[in-house]
Amino acid sequence: MKIAILTSGGDAPGMNVAIRAAVRYGINKGHEFYGVLNGYYGLVNDDLIKLEHKSMSGIISFGGTFLKTARFPEFREEANRQKAIDNLKARGIEGLIVIGGDGSYRGALDLSKMGLKVVTIPGTIDNDIYGTDYTIGFHTALNTIVEAMDKLRDTSVSHQRCSIIEVMGRECGDLALHAALSGGAEFLVTPENPLSKEYIIDKLKEYKKEDRTHAIVVVTENIFNVHELAKEITEKSKFTSNATVLGYIQRGGSPVPSDRIIATRMGSYAIDLFEQNIHSVAIGIENDKLIYLPIHIVLNNKRRVNPLYKLVKEVS
Ligand code: F6P
């Protein structure tokens, strides 16, 4: 079978590992592979390269995606999708593996409705995809955040300040939640745990009375203007405060072993599914077991609120 692979949306450490696993596992089973450059944009523009066993050499430790990625909202237009399908057909390609987040899954679902055999793999640092405990890239980003928090804590303790750290995650607080637990934060603000500014300031006033000398606030992006929050904390509580927005640093870096392992498992599983003629599905990992669900189920369901939220409250 001829299979194409693309990465789309925000890059995530471990995407290369998933590509490598699918290609090497698949070639060993007699399949042929093509890499689509720049995500769906490359699919529409027929920008494909042949992938060989040796093309995967050395990429296991590289962050980002060697196939490049793009956000391409124009893929919602049916004419563009038809072009993509025609391009694949002309090359005799029957299957497509899409590695990305929920935006990429929407494109995958639309293509599968048009008759293409598609399997998706969750690749995003946000960990915001239904039907999988973890997405590829999440643990590497978490590691980056916790390293940054440990550094921030040193200066926060020394200066007796309240440090605010803003992390990525879009609509999902998983990065912030796991970082707060691993980095010992006093406050966690996420879409699932929306603390108000007033609550944080009142609590900090109490901390002062209890002689607590520093605090760390972890906030998911797009909730507060963290610099304004720091200013307000400085004005209204007795703590001086500053804010650090971690930004795109969280998306880079060499994938940690746990990301490499799930990426390898998911990449090879995609080939197993094609071989069983199972497609229009999204791969996930639940309780350490690989699973698959129809893509529309994954897109139309929300992840349950993580029970770890309770623990953050109890240990802060
Ligand atoms: O989905 C991954 C992510 O890094 C989010 O955490 C963030 O909100 C978004 O991508 C940023 O996207 P862009 O690269 O388009 O600025």
Mean pLDDT: 97
Task: Find the CATH topology of the largest domain.
Answer: Rossmann fold
Radius of gyration: 22 Å
Please report the distance between the alpha carbons of the first and last residues. Answer: 53 Å
* CATH class type of the largest domain: Alpha Beta
Q: Do you know the CATH architecture of the largest domain? A: 3-Layer(aba) Sandwich
Summarize the structure.
The chain is of the alpha/beta class. It has helices spanning 15-28, 39-44, 78-90, 102-113, 138-159, 174-183, 197-209, 226-236, 257-275, 295-299, 308-315; strands spanning 2-7, 32-36, 48-51, 95-100, 117-122, 162-167, 187-189, 215-220, 241-245, 281-286, 289-294. The protein folds into 2 domains: 2-137 and 255-299, Rossmann fold (3-Layer(aba) Sandwich); 139-251, 3-Layer(aba) Sandwich (Rossmann fold).
Give a written overview of the molecule.
With 316 residues, the chain is of the alpha/beta class. The chain has two domains: 2-137 and 255-299, Rossmann fold, CATH 3.40.50.450; 139-251, Phosphofructokinase domain (Rossmann fold). It has helices spanning 15-28, 39-44, 78-90, 102-113, 138-159, 174-183, 197-209, 226-236, 257-275, 295-299, 308-315, and strands spanning 2-7, 32-36, 48-51, 95-100, 117-122, 162-167, 187-189, 215-220, 241-245, 281-286, 289-294. Strands 3-2-1-4-5-10-11 form a seven-stranded mixed sheet, with helices on both faces. Strand 7, helix 7 and strand 8 form a beta-alpha-beta unit. Helix 1 packs across helix 9, helix 5 crosses helix 6 (174-183) and helix 6 runs parallel beside helix 11 (308-315). The longest helix has 22 residues, at 138-159. It is elongated, with a radius of gyration of 22 Å. The termini are far apart. The model has no long low-confidence stretch (mean pLDDT 97). The site of 6-O-phosphono-beta-D-fructofuranose (F6P) has 11 residues, from loops.
